[in-house]
Amino acid sequence: MVSKSKIKVRYAETDQMGVVHHSNYAVWYELARTDYIETLGITYKAMEEVGLLVPIINLQSKYIKPAFYDNTLIIETRIKKLLKVKIEFEYKIYREGEEQPINTATTVHAFVNKALKPINLKKESPTIYTKLEQSLEY
Amino acid sequence: MVSKSKIKVRYAETDQMGVVHHSNYAVWYELARTDYIETLGITYKAMEEVGLLVPIINLQSKYIKPAFYDNTLIIETRIKKLLKVKIEFEYKIYREGEEQPINTATTVHAFVNKALKPINLKKESPTIYTKLEQSLEY
Amino acid sequence: MVSKSKIKVRYAETDQMGVVHHSNYAVWYELARTDYIETLGITYKAMEEVGLLVPIINLQSKYIKPAFYDNTLIIETRIKKLLKVKIEFEYKIYREGEEQPINTATTVHAFVNKALKPINLKKESPTIYTKLEQSLEY
Amino acid sequence: MVSKSKIKVRYAETDQMGVVHHSNYAVWYELARTDYIETLGITYKAMEEVGLLVPIINLQSKYIKPAFYDNTLIIETRIKKLLKVKIEFEYKIYREGEEQPINTATTVHAFVNKALKPINLKKESPTIYTKLEQSLEY
C-alpha cells in the first residue's frame, strides 16, 4: 500500500535562500505517515490515548531539488519494514505533476509506552500490528 | 525589575523576504519571560511539575524594524500587571548596541491547573505569587 | 467577503502542555490571508515577483480555547480596513462544527517594495488595490 | 577540530509527547555548523553575501535518547569529509555533563551559487576552502 498526502508550502516554511528550510520536511513526513495509518483505520491520536507512542529513532533524508513557496507537493508513503519493536516508513515527495521526486526519505520508529519504554507491538496491540502488516502486502 | 535575554537569530528563523519570520517572535517572548521568572528563583519547569500552567490568552506585537539572520538581539522583559488569576508581561527587543527597539509586545497569561481550569495563584501558590509581586516593585 | 481556510493540526505544532503552541497561529493567519487574496485572483507569489511585499507590522491575538492535535480547524478571514499604505485582516478560528471561535486575531501589514520601503498601493498597483477594495464591499 | 555549541531547549521545541520534537534537531545542527565555521573566521552571512550557498543534500540523524524542555545541550561538530563540490559535517549532541550522546548526525552540503548551480569551492573561493581543509587536520 502507498498513501498519498497533498500539502501546499507555507510562507513560514521558506528561508532566506528562497527555498523551503530543510527542517520542515520532517514535519511533512510525520503528517504523511499519519495519513498512511489513518487509511488503515488507525489514528495516531487513538494510539496515544491507549498509551502507544512511536518516537522516531532514525531519519535519513535526501534533498534532490528545492521546494518553493506555494508549491503543491505530493508525499507518497509506504512501510518499508515492520518488526515487533519498530517500523520503517519510506517517503517520496513530488511537486504536483512531476515524475521525479524532489526528496526521498526513511524514518524508523520504536514502539514505546508512555514511560518511553520499548514494547512488543505484536503482543501489546495485535490488532494494530496486523493492520500494519496487511498493508505491507497489497 | 527588568530581565535581559540575549539571542542570536537562527537561519531557520528567516523567510524568503530575507528577514525573520514574524511567528518566531512569540517563541522569543516565551524564553524571555522564562528568563525573567528564573531570575526570581522560579523555573517554569518546576511550576509545571507542581501542576501550574500559564497558557497565553492574549498577544499583542508591534513589528517596527525587521530582524536579520545572525543578528544578536536583546529582549528586555518586565511584568506589566499581576492579578490573582492572570499576569501580563511586556517585551522590548533591541538589536545589540541600538537604542530603538525593533519590536515591542505584551502577552497575557492565565494561571491554570493541569486540567486547564483557572486557579487563583495567590491562594494556590502564595510563594510564587509573592515573588512575582515583589519583582514588580524594584 | 469572508474566505474560509481549513487546516488539520500537525503533531509538530503541539507542545508539552498537550495543546497547539501559540506561535503556530501566526503561521495559520498567514495561510488564511493568502487564501483570501487568492480568492480575488491574486497570488502572494505573483505580488512578490513584481516586487510588492506586505510585511506584518502589528499582530493581536486572543486565545480563547486551546486547539489540539488532529483537530480540523476553519479559519474565517476578512479585510477589516484598507488604506493606501497598509491593510488590516481579521481572523476567526473555529474547530470544525463548532459555533464559538477558539481564537480571534487581527494583523496589520504595510505595503513595501523589495528594499522594504513603504509604497502607496493604490498608485503602484491599482489593479490589486481595486480588487482588495471591492472584496470589502460584498 | 571540534567546535562546541551550547543551547537551551525552548518550550516551543517540545511536543505533546513531552520531549523535543525531532524536526528541531536539524535547526540545531545548522547553528552548530555555523559556529564551527565562525571559529575559522568565516561567517555564513559573509558567504551568502559573496554568493556562496551551502544547501543541505543529505541528512542522517540517530535519535538515541530524548531531549527535554530546559535541558542544556552541547553540540560537538566536526568536518567528516571535504570535497571540492561538497562537505560533510558530523554532530554529537550531549546533555550537559553527560558522557553518552543523545543524538548523532551527519549532514552533507553542496557548494552552489545564488542560482543554486554547483560550484567548485576550491576554485571559486580558495581562501574558504583552505580554511576548511586546515580545520580537518588539527
UniProtKB/TrEMBL annotation, chains A, B, C, D:
Record family assignment: Belongs to the 4-hydroxybenzoyl-CoA thioesterase family.
Organism expressing this protein natively: Natranaerovirga hydrolytica
PANTHER family found in the cross-reference section: 4-HYDROXYBENZOYL-COA THIOESTERASE FAMILY MEMBER (PTHR31793), NOVEL THIOESTERASE SUPERFAMILY DOMAIN AND SAPOSIN A-TYPE DOMAIN CONTAINING PROTEIN (0610012H03RIK) (PTHR31793:SF27)
Pfam family, one: 4HBT
NCBIfam families, A to Z: YbgC/FadM family acyl-CoA thioesterase
Keywords linked to the UniProt accession: Hydrolase
Protein name: Acyl-CoA thioester hydrolase
UniProt keyword annotation of Hydrolase present: yes
InterPro entries noted in UniProt: 4-hydroxybenzoyl-CoA_TE (IPR050563), HotDog_dom_sf (IPR029069), Thioestr_dom (IPR006683), YbgC/YbaW (IPR006684)
Domain Thioesterase: 17-100
Keyword Hydrolase: yes
Record GO terms (molecular function): fatty acyl-CoA hydrolase activity
SUPFAM superfamilies: Thioesterase/thiol ester dehydrase-isomerase
